[in-house]
From TrEMBL:
Domain of life: Eukaryota
UniProt cross-references to Pfam families, sorted A to Z: Condensin2nSMC (PF12422)
GO terms of biological process kind: mitotic sister chromatid segregation
Record-level GO cellular component terms: condensin complex; nucleus
Species, as recorded: Trichostrongylus colubriformis (Black scour worm)
Protein name, UniProt field: Uncharacterized protein
Amino acid sequence: MRAKRSHLRSTGTALETLMEDMDFDENPPPVPQKDPKAVIPEMNGASQAFKKRNTLRAGSKRIIPELEVEATEKSVVNEKLEYLLGDYNDSIEKACKNEKGQKALIKRLWADHEEVVEKCSINNLRHALWEPSFLSCGEGVKLCAYALRKIGYRSAFLLMKKMIIAGASNTTCNHLGQVIYTAWRMAVKEENEDMMKEIESEMITGTVHDAVLLPFNLSSKFIHILSSFSVDNADKAKMEGMLVRCFESVLWIGLESSHDQVRYAASTILLGFYPLMDDDDFKRDECLFKQNNIMLSMLKDECTAIRMVAAKKVLKILGMYWNFVPRDFVKQYMTIVSSIFH
């Protein structure tokens, strides 16, 4: 140890000299600093970006004055009080006006539909059925469908005819069809056989007659009414047999008519409702064979319009309902269709 210490004293640098050379305390190295003139613009840029973000956040929120909120809440409360304290006839008349709050009022009326229909006059219920804006609301369609039992099914269908003659739009005709379909579904749900038969005989069968036999400008409107019962818009599995019963009185006669327009209207209906399925299992195959055979006749019809609409619809039917069409018919269909388009 003594030899090691003596060696350090003789060869190593003095400890004090090493500490002085390192100079930790007396002469610290200068800390690099940014130019003050350069710092100010950076701070300004950061503050501007911060302000911009805050502005965007504030701008995305709509500031609603307290007075406006209070006025809106007050108007809603007043409308509810007016409805609760008012008369249903007045409410129906107000709901027939195409103005702000119409749909909300119709929804309230549907919530109390049984009491509304019971206490309202027939004339006011007829007015609701007549008004297109009332039917444009889903609850309005359901309320009118429920009201048919008080208006009377024959009387309501005559009113619908007057609407069509007065120039009802295709959209309104679609809504009228929804009213009839909804009324029939209500009767099914209630298991009311008498109501179902009355709707089928007075409204659905009557619509088919008018769709087939009236001039085209009117028959097309009734076809729009029938569209609510078509495959795309209704639960066809729950309507098996009903459509066959309603169609058989006039549709098959119309398909064999010598009048091109009647034949065209009947063809359009059959092609839109294929396949019509009979309730009776023994008659089902016969009914399908009849439809397939008639479609073959359509493709060979003398009327060009019938051939064209049949060619387009038959291709769609083969794509969707190929399992209902026998192979022999498929071959004949494709042969004729290919000759039409070539």
